[in-house]
Amino acid sequence: MELRVGGRFRLGRKIGSGSFGDIYLGQNIVTQEEVAIKLECVKTKHPQLHIESRLYKLMSGGVGIPQVKWCGYEGEYNVMVMELLGPSLEDLFNFCSRKFTLKTVLLLADQMLSRIEYIHSKDFIHRDIKPDNFLMGLGKKGNLVYIIDFGLAKKYRCSRTHAHIPYRENKNLTGTARYASVNTHLGIGLFMIPFAISHLFCSLVALLCHFYFFDAAHKFMLRRFLSIPQCDCILFQKS
User: Fold this and answer.
1) Could you say which residues bind ATP here (predicted)?
2) Beta strands of the chain (E only): which ranges?
């Protein structure tokens, strides 16, 4: 039996997972266009998909922001239908034997930083910056880097005054540990731009050097780094 969502999208095979849902290949039965369909059980304790879809719409029009084609619910699932994209940077990294050249990393970094900067201009931070959440486009947009998965995104400043929302301490880890900033591991809330940039830095180091700051083998380096008094000035500024 053929499964459809939104009356015009055919549901196909599973192609991935996001922060709060599974992603399937789909097709518009009218135009034959292939799409990505994200499903989230309506009974989930903390539904996020409709919130995420609103953020995509808020970000719409920005370079490297995928288009949302339909959002609603179907049976037991909240549904978001999106523009289909290509492989993630993590996929490409694996395809290239887990090593990119410096030139490749710099070209990617330029686009990745632009995507993060655009999100920040809309008063939000992503909170899960990692190679898995940057995807390449398809066809004529094959060289364009997209950013996806706003399931953990949060507002960091007032839209009217641009005053920063105070960060909170003793927070549980948000995002992915191996790409998280030092402050995130220390339980300081992700409400400041430097924290987001440090997530990007960790991602770029991983792509270039195959080095994860918070792999078990490297935790001793973090402890030694934190023992240096000057680190307080660099990493833990509170304004």
Assistant:
1) 38
2) 4-5, 9-18, 21-28, 34-41, 68-74, 77-83, 124-125, 134-136, 145-147, 154-155
38 annotated ligand-binding residue:
yes
**Two tokens, residue 138:** 């398809």
Query: Is position 68 within any domain?
Result: yes
**6, part of any domain:** no
Residue 64 · residue 146 · CB < 8 Å: yes
The reply to whether 239 falls in a domain is no
Report the number of distinct structural domains present in the chain: 2
Residue 20 pLDDT: 76
Mean of all residue pLDDT scores within the chain: 79
Q: How far apart are CA 8 and CA 142, in angstroms?
A: 26
80: β partners: 38, 71
Residues marked active site are found at 128
Rounded-to-integer distance, Cα 123 and Cα 178, Å: 25
User: Global pTM?
Assistant: 0.76
Do 138 and 218 lie in a common domain? yes
Q: Which residue has the tokens 């523009």?
A: 83
Q: Domain containing 220: what range?
A: 87-227
Tokens of 22: 């599974």
**Which regions in the chain score pLDDT beneath 70?**
1, 19, 167-239
Tokens describing residue 40 = 């989230």
